[in-house]
Design goal:
By secondary structure, this protein is of the alpha+beta class. The protein has eight helices and 14 strands. Helix 3 runs parallel beside helix 5. The mean pLDDT is about 95.
């Protein structure tokens, strides 16, 4: 199974990018975040005509939105109302072999890393706390779970272009990293990207639009993640961040993350 997670930053604006990616990489499962479209206006035909007959979407106008498209059959699972806000940040499915796939878009958190001064930052921390509690309740050694998405936290020093300069910047502050680490502990999650690329090496998936030459300056952050529970560790085969997608005309500021699994789906 080839899986991709991609913050597409408006699926309707980047359908040509999605089409090119499918033709180039032939994924089996596509997880999107920031689709920015209501369910009734989602461009489903663009996916179904390419073999993605199974889908689960949760969208709203102009903001947020998550979706899973698959060539493999699945059952859509019920999602909680996170932080009492029905803002379309989670969708989950279960494949025939029992493997669950959870696609998240964690709140970005605004610009001020203080929950007392910034409601958006408080929401982000509360969201991660609820993720921790929810997955802790589900924890079982036999669980086969995959968690993907734009988690909006770059937890490791080499997940950002400058650890020292970004310590007070939202996405890499110590309190956010601590909260994300608690989510990881909630089900002994394994960082699938770092399973292939050691923590000593720089690894980014997002580059700001503000940089005129993102490749030259390379001031990136790893905001996009793929995690697996221990029961799926041995199924991990390969990982790639598709930098070519970030370099296309009018791209998303996120690059797609591809992970191959040896799963009997």
């Amino acid at each position: 199974m080839r899986l991709v997670t991609w913050n597409i930053n408006s699926v309707r604006a980047r359908l040509a990018h999605v089409d090119h990616f499918i033709q180039t990489h032939d994924p089996d499962v596509i997880c999107l975040q920031e689709t920015k479209v209501t369910d009734n206006e989602f461009p489903l035909k663009a996916f179904t005509k390419q073999g993605f007959e199974h889908y689960a979407i949760a969208g709203q106008k102009s903001y947020n939105g998550v979706a899973i498209f698959s060539k493999l059959p699945f059952e859509t699972l019920e999602s909680p109302i996170w932080c009492d806000k029905d803002d379309k940040r989670h969708v989950a499915v279960q494949f025939k072999d029992g493997t669950e796939l959870h696609n998240f878009y964690v709140p970005a958190g605004g610009d001020v890393p203080d929950p007392e001064l910034n409601d958006k930052f408080a929401h982000k921390l509360a969201f991660m706390k609820q993720m921790t509690a929810w997955f802790s309740d589900k924890k079982a050694e036999s669980n086969k779970l995959i968690l993907v998405g734009d988690l909006n936290v770059a937890p490791l020093e080499n997940d950002v272009w400058s650890h020292k300069q970004l310590l007070k910047i939202v996405s890499h502050t110590p309190i956010e990293v601590d909260h994300l680490n608690e989510v990881m502990k909630s089900h002994d999650w394994i960082d699938a990207m770092r399973h292939f690329i050691p923590e000593s090496e720089r690894l980014y998936s997002w580059w700001s639009y503000r940089s005129k030459d993102w490749k030259k300056t390379n001031k990136g952050r790893r905001l996009d993640h793929v995690w697996v529970t221990p029961a799926l560790k041995e199924t991990l085969q390969h990982m790639l961040i598709d930098l070519e997608a970030r370099d296309r005309e009018k791209p998303s500021d996120h690059a797609p993350v591809i992970v191959d699994f040896a799963l009997p789906l």
